[in-house]
């Protein structure tokens, strides 16, 4: 069973997170940011990963530290749960429409962190969530999961729809990449022999 549990405490946030890659998409999430709770629930459902997230952050300042640190811990949990990455498909890609918005995510569990993020978000706040933090979340995930991650908003008008399409397309691409190829369960998908 590929799973992980991480606790990270700083002067700005206290986060406990657990992931189970062989899950059923169940989520128990309390981040203090309603929109972020919603995004984690979508991420779990569409990736098939079970997750428990408990977070207390300095929301009296803003959502920056909380959202970025959630990305750090999610990335670390994902990296730990993947272990040596034997048997995984490694790559994933998905385009998701959300009403007028269309977002494509392409990722590679390469061991090399890199983020390409192309999006225009018309609205600055969704509740107590600052929408510019979406890029910071995915940058933290990419850096700490050691993932090459490309997120491209093809078009869109409604900020909620655009960000929701990002999380859904990311989750569906991740589901493909972490899936075990039963024919090559002991193989690492790299000509170098290591990811």
TrEMBL record:
<dbReference type="InterPro" id="IPR020568">
    <property type="entry name" value="Ribosomal_Su5_D2-typ_SF"/>
</dbReference>
<keyword id="KW-0028">Amino-acid biosynthesis</keyword>
<dbReference type="InterPro" id="IPR038494">
    <property type="entry name" value="IGPD_sf"/>
</dbReference>
<keyword id="KW-0368">Histidine biosynthesis</keyword>
<comment type="similarity">
    <text>Belongs to the imidazoleglycerol-phosphate dehydratase family.</text>
</comment>
<dbReference type="GO" id="GO:0000105">
    <property type="term" value="P:L-histidine biosynthetic process"/>
</dbReference>
<dbReference type="GO" id="GO:0005737">
    <property type="term" value="C:cytoplasm"/>
</dbReference>
<dbReference type="Pfam" id="PF00475">
    <property type="entry name" value="IGPD"/>
</dbReference>
<dbReference type="GO" id="GO:0004424">
    <property type="term" value="F:imidazoleglycerol-phosphate dehydratase activity"/>
</dbReference>
<keyword id="KW-0963">Cytoplasm</keyword>
<keyword id="KW-0456">Lyase</keyword>
<dbReference type="InterPro" id="IPR020565">
    <property type="entry name" value="ImidazoleglycerP_deHydtase_CS"/>
</dbReference>
<protein>
    <recommendedName>
        <fullName>Imidazoleglycerol-phosphate dehydratase</fullName>
        <ecNumber>4.2.1.19</ecNumber>
    </recommendedName>
</protein>
<dbReference type="InterPro" id="IPR000807">
    <property type="entry name" value="ImidazoleglycerolP_deHydtase"/>
</dbReference>
<comment type="pathway">
    <text>Amino-acid biosynthesis; L-histidine biosynthesis; L-histidine from 5-phospho-alpha-D-ribose 1-diphosphate: step 6/9.</text>
</comment>
